[in-house]
Amino acid sequence: MVTLGHFLLLAGLLMAIGLYGVLTRRNLIAVLMSVEILLNAAALAFASAAAFRDPHLFAGQVFALFIIVVAAAELSIGFAILLNVYRTHGAVSDDAIGEMRG
Amino acid sequence: MSLTAFYALAAFTLVFALFAVTTANMVRAAFSLAVTFFLIAGLYLLLGSPALAAVQFMVNASAIPIMTLFIIMMTQSRRSAAPRSWQVGVGFLAAAVALVFFRSAVVHGEGRVAPVSPEALGTNLLQAALLPFEVASVLLLLAMVGAIVLARRRAG
């Protein structure tokens, strides 16, 4: 029998993987991809909590839906910024944008 | 809800997510991300909400990997450099801390899922959650216009 704990554990593991990716990736596109994994883990946690605990108030499903919307908006703006980074610096790696370093 | 299907989907999800954050080949990472999100759509089906599964399939498993592939090609970043050694340590540490926090969230309880029909979810979205729904559409419009303005080549 699959319980809510199974799904929450999976969401936690996905979140750990995404966090590892955010901190270790050096290409900024890959960092944004890791952020996507983080957001999907959160959406999965919301949806599973809704399905097991509260299926008729819809709050969890609606939250998961809005997380997907916000993720899409964040990613499109992030990619547009990275395109500008590429035009001004010639690369989208983290050592290409180090001029703010003290 | 079958335990076998859950374990199969969960194992493949974790494997592909791990591959997406570790491989040096960015194109493979983008495709692996697409497969991860596709499998998460399967998990939404297991959770009895086909509407979420459809949105996940159309947005996260199709549109976002295509956009990622476009940006990978446009910025000529086929490969991601290997992480610095201190980054790997910090990454493992942060992942371990996150898992410790999540350990307390693992609850034991009944394993019964009540399916939610897309009609009910849509009705709720347009009645109880109408204001957030409209705000989300304005946010998407802003993101679209903002992305076009940011990515446009300056004339001259």
UniProtKB/TrEMBL annotation, chain A:
<keyword id="KW-0472">Membrane</keyword>
<dbReference type="GO" id="GO:0042773">
    <property type="term" value="P:ATP synthesis coupled electron transport"/>
</dbReference>
<comment type="function">
    <text>NDH-1 shuttles electrons from NADH, via FMN and iron-sulfur (Fe-S) centers, to quinones in the respiratory chain. The immediate electron acceptor for the enzyme in this species is believed to be a menaquinone. Couples the redox reaction to proton translocation (for every two electrons transferred, four hydrogen ions are translocated across the cytoplasmic membrane), and thus conserves the redox energy in a proton gradient.</text>
</comment>
<keyword id="KW-0812">Transmembrane</keyword>
<keyword id="KW-0874">Quinone</keyword>
<keyword id="KW-1133">Transmembrane helix</keyword>
<feature type="transmembrane region" description="Helical">
    <location>
        <begin position="58"/>
        <end position="83"/>
    </location>
</feature>
<keyword id="KW-0813">Transport</keyword>
<keyword id="KW-1003">Cell membrane</keyword>
<comment type="similarity">
    <text>Belongs to the complex I subunit 4L family.</text>
</comment>
<dbReference type="GO" id="GO:0030964">
    <property type="term" value="C:NADH dehydrogenase complex"/>
</dbReference>
<keyword id="KW-1278">Translocase</keyword>
<comment type="subunit">
    <text>NDH-1 is composed of 15 different subunits. Subunits NuoA, H, J, K, L, M, N constitute the membrane sector of the complex.</text>
</comment>
<dbReference type="GO" id="GO:0005886">
    <property type="term" value="C:plasma membrane"/>
</dbReference>
<protein>
    <recommendedName>
        <fullName>NADH-quinone oxidoreductase subunit K</fullName>
        <ecNumber>7.1.1.-</ecNumber>
    </recommendedName>
</protein>
<dbReference type="InterPro" id="IPR039428">
    <property type="entry name" value="NUOK/Mnh_C1-like"/>
</dbReference>
<keyword id="KW-0560">Oxidoreductase</keyword>
<dbReference type="InterPro" id="IPR001133">
    <property type="entry name" value="NADH_UbQ_OxRdtase_chain4L/K"/>
</dbReference>
<dbReference type="GO" id="GO:0048038">
    <property type="term" value="F:quinone binding"/>
</dbReference>
<feature type="transmembrane region" description="Helical">
    <location>
        <begin position="30"/>
        <end position="52"/>
    </location>
</feature>
<dbReference type="Pfam" id="PF00420">
    <property type="entry name" value="Oxidored_q2"/>
</dbReference>
<feature type="transmembrane region" description="Helical">
    <location>
        <begin position="6"/>
        <end position="23"/>
    </location>
</feature>
UniProtKB/TrEMBL annotation, chain B:
<feature type="transmembrane region" description="Helical">
    <location>
        <begin position="126"/>
        <end position="151"/>
    </location>
</feature>
<keyword id="KW-1133">Transmembrane helix</keyword>
<keyword id="KW-1003">Cell membrane</keyword>
<comment type="function">
    <text>NDH-1 shuttles electrons from NADH, via FMN and iron-sulfur (Fe-S) centers, to quinones in the respiratory chain. Couples the redox reaction to proton translocation (for every two electrons transferred, four hydrogen ions are translocated across the cytoplasmic membrane), and thus conserves the redox energy in a proton gradient.</text>
</comment>
<keyword id="KW-0874">Quinone</keyword>
<protein>
    <recommendedName>
        <fullName>NADH-quinone oxidoreductase subunit J</fullName>
        <ecNumber>7.1.1.-</ecNumber>
    </recommendedName>
</protein>
<feature type="transmembrane region" description="Helical">
    <location>
        <begin position="53"/>
        <end position="74"/>
    </location>
</feature>
<dbReference type="Pfam" id="PF00499">
    <property type="entry name" value="Oxidored_q3"/>
</dbReference>
<comment type="similarity">
    <text>Belongs to the complex I subunit 6 family.</text>
</comment>
<feature type="transmembrane region" description="Helical">
    <location>
        <begin position="86"/>
        <end position="106"/>
    </location>
</feature>
<dbReference type="GO" id="GO:0048038">
    <property type="term" value="F:quinone binding"/>
</dbReference>
<dbReference type="GO" id="GO:0008137">
    <property type="term" value="F:NADH dehydrogenase (ubiquinone) activity"/>
</dbReference>
<keyword id="KW-0472">Membrane</keyword>
<dbReference type="InterPro" id="IPR042106">
    <property type="entry name" value="Nuo/plastoQ_OxRdtase_6_NuoJ"/>
</dbReference>
<keyword id="KW-0520">NAD</keyword>
<dbReference type="InterPro" id="IPR001457">
    <property type="entry name" value="NADH_UbQ/plastoQ_OxRdtase_su6"/>
</dbReference>
<keyword id="KW-0812">Transmembrane</keyword>
<feature type="transmembrane region" description="Helical">
    <location>
        <begin position="29"/>
        <end position="47"/>
    </location>
</feature>
<feature type="transmembrane region" description="Helical">
    <location>
        <begin position="6"/>
        <end position="22"/>
    </location>
</feature>
<dbReference type="GO" id="GO:0005886">
    <property type="term" value="C:plasma membrane"/>
</dbReference>
